[in-house]
Specification:
By secondary structure, this protein is α+β, with helices and mostly antiparallel strands. It is globular and about 50 Å long. Helix content is 18%, strand content 29%. Strands 3, 4, 5, 6, 7, 8, 9, 10 and 13 form a nine-stranded antiparallel sheet that branches. Strand 1 and strand 2 form a beta hairpin. The longest helix has 20 residues, at 127-146. It has one domain (9-30, 39-213).
Length: 229
C-alpha cells in the first residue's frame, strides 16, 4: 500500500547530522553546497497531476503524461488513513530502466490529490542484474533535486534508513510541500568512530521511490477526534 514518507524532514536532518553518510555502494559523499542563485523547487505534484485535482482530473493527467489507458488503473481505499489510492503501471519513466508504479493518493477529507508515489522495483530473478541501475538512478535523481534551491535547513541527503535503506534526498519547500527519494534493498558502508561499518548484503529486491507530499507535516488522513476516548 502506498504510504507517506518514512521519515519527517526534522528526523532526517537529525540523522544526517548525527550519522556519517553512506559510502559509494549506495550514495557517494555529499555533493557540494548549492549555488545561492539556484531556482527554488516548488512541490506541486508530479508532472500534469497537480495537488488539489480531483480523481477524474488526475486520471486524465496520467493518461496524457504516460499514454496509459484510464481503465487500467487500480483503485484502493486505505481504511486506516481514509485515503483513496489510484495506481497505474508505466512501462518506463526516465531515468530508471524498469517499469514504474505511479500511485496518486487523494485526501480523506478533501478528496483531492495530496500525495504521489513513483516506485520502481527489480523484477523477480533479476535483483542482482537490475540493482546497480536503481542505485545509479537514485544518484541521478539526488543530483537533479539538489540542483534546485531549498530553504535553509530544509534539505537532507545520504541519510541511512535501516540496514539496507538510504534516503538519497529529502527536501521541503517554503510552503511545506516535500519530496523524498528513498532507495531500499542496497548495501552500503560508512565510517563510525574511525572504522568502516558495512551494512548486511540485501536479500530481497531493490526498490526506488520518489514521493511528493502536498503537506508532509499535516497530511489529509483520517484521525480519531480529540476526546473520543
Amino acid at each position: 500500500m502506498s504510504r507517506y514518507p518514512y521519515l519527517s524532514l526534522a528526523a532526517a536532518l537529525a540523522l544526517a547530522a548525527a550519522t556519517p553518510a553512506p559510502a559509494q555502494t549506495a550514495a557517494p559523499a555529499a555533493a557540494p553546497p548549492l549555488a545561492p542563485t539556484a531556482a527554488p523547487y516548488v512541490v506541486k505534484g508530479f508532472r500534469s497531476a497537480q495537488f488539489g485535482m480531483t480523481e477524474a482530473q488526475v486520471v486524465s493527467a496520467a493518461a496524457k503524461d504516460f499514454g496509459v489507458d484510464p481503465k487500467s488503473a487500480t483503485r484502493q481505499v486505505n481504511a486506516a488513513q481514509g485515503t483513496t489510492v489510484v495506481t497505474f503501471t508505466v512501462a518506463r519513466i526516465e531515468p530508471v530502466p524498469v517499469p514504474a508504479q505511479v500511485s496518486y493518493i487523494f485526501g480523506a477529507s478533501g478528496h483531492t490529490l495530496v500525495h504521489v508515489n513513483v516506485v520502481w522495483a527489480t523484477a523477480a530473478g533479476q535483483e542482482d542484474a537490475q540493482r546497480p541501475a536503481l542505485i545509479a538512478s537514485a544518484l541521478k535523481l539526488r543530483a537533479y533535486f539538489r540542483g534546485y534551491g531549498w530553504p535553509p535547513k530544509h534539505m537532507a541527503s545520504d541519510v541511512p534508513a535501516g540496514p539496507n535503506g538510504v534516503i538519497t534526498f529529502l527536501g521541503q519547500d517554503a510552503s511545506g510541500g516535500a519530496v523524498e527519494v528513498m532507495l531500499q534493498g542496497v548495501s552500503y558502508s560508512r565510517e563510525v568512530g574511525g572504522k568502516t561499518v558495512a551494512s548486511p548484503a540485501p536479500t530481497g529486491p531493490a526498490v526506488l521511490r520518489v514521493a511528493y507530499s502536498q503537506n508532509a507535516a499535516k497530511p489529509d488522513v483520517a484521525k480519531v477526534a480529540p476526546g473520543t476516548f
